[in-house]
Amino acid sequence: MAKILLAEDDETLRKMTTLILEMSGFEVFGYSNGQLALAAFPVISPDLIVSDIGMPTLDGFGLLDGVRQFPEGAVVPFLFLSAHSEQDDINAARRQGADDFLFKPFDPDDLVNAVRVRIERRRMAEIFDTRQAHLQTIILLSNVIEARDVYTRGHVERVQLMSMELGNALGWSSTELSALEYGALLHDIGKIIVPESILNKPSQLSSDELEIIQKHPYSGARMVDGVSHLRGARPYILYHHEKWDGTGYPEGLIGADIPQEGRLLAIVDVFDALTSDRPYHKGIPVLAALKFLRGEAGKHFDPEMVEVFCKLYE
């Protein structure tokens, strides 16, 4: 339930406003002046402030200025209810960071709509900021992975871009695409446990070294287990080396038993490996790589997904 801090010196209007907002599902904390409301602000941590302008002790402008002094107060929406309709008051309040005005007498529906719109905008901004913070952390992790492997610089970024194009072409939902965005970045996180001498070995790996490499999907999956906002990355990390015919690793899944995340990333991961210079081969032309992918449809790759991918790049 969203919390609203209300400052209004007119008791009748304060009670009426409180009733309107509470009937619309909000929790309201009402005070008779700005000073009392300002003192309550850090305790209540409201989602929005509704305030009169002309009040004793501390007016609405003073309340707005005081709230903005708190670090958490910089982003709290502020809605003025006032009988003052002079342009100077409006301009002054906007300069201080007020978000909107309703002039008395106001329509109850206008009040509720104004409150809902501003709370929703704040929540969407918080979701965006949180997602961006998570994404920056994920990019940092992926850079750490690539810094240890001199042969795959730029691989993670290229895989992410191509994966997003393929996900869009397959008609994946916004939720699926959001998980894909960071799942592609983290798909090789398990390589953190692989010694650099193996990652950067210019010759063929021994059977023991290959066994160590093939453990990285399990290691990566364990790293994100229990991290709620990375849960969507797990199938990309764990299943991108599975093959359609069951000869992949780590679990040897077959066909549609392989989660779609692993099936998608397997295509993009191999395509980038084929077209990039690696210690064991020079990158091949795009058309040759696409021919290889088509030849592996139904063996290494999901036949339908690989065809969509190839058509994207032709």
Structural category is alpha/beta
As a percent range, the share of helical residues equals 55-70%
Give Rg in angstroms: 28 Å
What CATH architecture label of the largest domain applies? Orthogonal Bundle
CATH topology of the largest domain: Hypothetical protein af1432
Explain the layout of strands and helices.
Blueprint: E1 3-7, H1 11-23, E2 27-31, H2 34-44, E3 48-52, H3 60-69, E4 78-82, H4 87-96, E5 100-103, H5 108-148, H6 155-169, H7 174-186, H8 196-199, H9 207-213, H10 216-224, H11 234-239, H12 260-275, H13 286-295, H14 303-313
Parallel strand pairs: 1-2, 1-3, 3-4, 4-5
Report what the structure shows.
With 314 residues, the chain is α/β, with parallel strands linked by helices. The protein is built from 14 helices and 5 strands. Strand 4, helix 4 (87-96) and strand 5 (100-103) form a beta-alpha-beta unit. The radius of gyration is 28 Å and the shape is elongated. The chain has a 5-stranded parallel beta sheet, sandwiched between helices.
Which terms would index this structure?
Hypothetical protein af1432; 14 helices; 2 domains; single chain; five-stranded parallel beta sheet; 314 residues; alpha/beta; Rossmann fold
Concise account of the structure shown:
With 314 residues, this protein is of the alpha/beta class. It has helices at 11-23, 34-44, 60-69, 87-96, 108-148, 155-169, 174-186, 196-199, 207-213, 216-224, 234-239, 260-275, 286-295, 303-313; strands at 3-7, 27-31, 48-52, 78-82, 100-103.
